[in-house]
């Protein structure tokens, strides 16, 4: 298989330009002192002039969020110098994509989940179509979803989510894609990324 370098198209360029306007948090040590913090990587790729977004399906053997659709990422560890280091490390550990295989386009605003996790999201563009090395202990599979599909209003909605304590939250979700459902913080981050187009 011949792997060609992926061009940056107008959609990705627009996202990159808008992300450049967002200030990057440099205070994560204080922000994470009294709460759980994590970082994720939203990787895009251009194939046949179409933009796709890379998701993972978490392994059913994990303790938290098992079987859910997510982005590569995880909890910030002591050895990580920054949330970006976490996102890069977790992407490499989970699906075998190393930093040299993509360009960091920028950071998105951090978000708090219903479980009180503070999430630092980063967007990137893959240079080439990757050969994934999936860590089966953490990830069941990866899937590429067309941004065109994600942008369609008929494929997303807001629904009520109830916690164990009975609290209700409005949660974004998408219709199933290849029988996989995107919802919660993953759907929110997806929607946020698409808002930069």
- The rough form would be described as globular
Largest β-sheet summary: 8 strands, mixed
Q: How many angstroms does the end-to-end distance come to?
A: 32 Å
* Radius of gyration using CA atoms only: 16 Å
Low-pLDDT segments? 1-7
Strand proportion, as a percent range, falls in 25-35%
Tell me the number of structural domains: 1
Structural class call reads alpha+beta
- Indicate the mean pLDDT: 89
What is the CATH T-level topology?
Nucleoside Triphosphate Pyrophosphohydrolase
CATH architecture assignment name: Alpha-Beta Complex
Topology order in helix (H) and strand (E) letters = HHEEEEHEEEEHEEH
Assign the CATH class.
Alpha Beta
Total count of strands: 10
Number of helices: 5
Helix content range: 10-25%
CATH superfamily: Nucleoside Triphosphate Pyrophosphohydrolase
